[in-house]
Design goal:
The protein has six helices and no strands. With about 180 residues, the protein is mainly α. It has a domain of about 120 residues: Ferritin (Up-down Bundle), CATH 1.20.1260. It is rod-shaped.
Length: about 180
Amino acid sequence: MVLTCPVAMGRTTRQDVSSELSRRGLLRAGVLLALGGAAAPLAGCGLLDRDGQPPQPDPLAPLLNESLQLAAGLRATVDVHPDLADRLLPLAESHEAHAAELARLTGVATAPATPTVSPSGSPTAGPTDRSAAMAALRESERVGRESALQACAAAPAERVALLGSVAAARATHVEALR
């Protein structure tokens, strides 16, 4: 390192020192400048913010959870009505694929959804009457289609393709469950 300013050496009177920098003073200034320069980028990244506000959840999180719940509902119905497996399992797999892609897009780790739990504490597997089960699944898909359409309309351009695909799949599922 080359110092280009005069450095006082061996002078102890105040009159002589006031016009020149000492090595100690120069080192202090350098350290402060280095620390200030290192901390400046951190101030803009939110590391030093003390707002105490947690980050907002991604607006697609409800759609992700809904996809997992729809898949779990379809699988629970298959558990009660195994003869519907050929018809319902592809729909459940479609929801699981959408959930995986939504999780990738939002950066959220997901676990497979489990069937909802009744107030008694036992898992609800869906209605035992086949037509009631299909009607409940159709209604769930219809509600899911509406929420996917709303999310698609409100989404930024880079998310519209996926959300349009989710909405179209859910509309198809409503028809497939008739």
